[in-house]
User: Which sequence fits this backbone?
């Protein structure tokens, strides 16, 4: 059986690459969750405004919804 040799610089590079890839995947997931929560929050606030302000037109609702997100 032959031995596999790898120098420490190459090993560090492989480890760093794997850690960065895992971190980026986790960061992407957190960003997606944050975007979903932000959008949901903006929609909930806009719906509350419409619910408690019956004079608001649909155009005003859409304007506020778009400016909140």
Assistant:
């Amino acid at each position: 059986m032959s031995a596999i040799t790898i120098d420490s610089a190459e090993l560090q590079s492989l480890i760093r690459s794997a850690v960065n890839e895992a971190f980026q995947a986790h960061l992407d997931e957190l960003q997606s969750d944050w975007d979903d929560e932000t959008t949901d929050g903006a929609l909930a606030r806009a719906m509350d405004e419409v619910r408690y302000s019956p004079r608001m037109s649909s155009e005003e609702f859409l304007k506020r919804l778009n400016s909140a997100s």
